[in-house]
Model the fold of this input.
Amino acid sequence: MSKTALNMAVLTVSDTRTLETDTSGSTLAERIRQDGHHLVDRKLVKDDLFHIRAIIADWIFQPGIQVVLITGGTGFSGRDVTPDAIAPLLVDVIPGFGELFRQLSFQEVGTSTIQSRAVAGLANRTMVVALPGSTGACRTAWDRILKEQLDSTHKPCNFVAEIS
Done:
């Protein structure tokens, strides 16, 4: 069975980074390509609930995007609004994603992982994943969760049938 290549978009939420200094978004873009998927869009937006929501809503609406990866804005500071921005857009939340991410992240950052509001869900046959803004967190999420769950050949189950 051949692997299904998915179309993905990456959004970096940051008040301080540019596309040139965005190592987290670059890491996700690199992993997407390395694993045979297509990066169809990549943007950077300031930490603003309505701007984040508008971009994600547009991507969810586009039939050519099956996965949206967001990096940044998942902590507890007043500026961290990514989970709040996407919550109304998600039809189904994937509770196990955040739980597993924090479990894996604990091995790397210890109890600081409890400050992550990493979340994933489905909307309009699109998987939306919100990750912390650190490059390490993006590596952990891709290498230890997303790579397999976005691989149509991964058994016993994966999310590809739900989004393609």
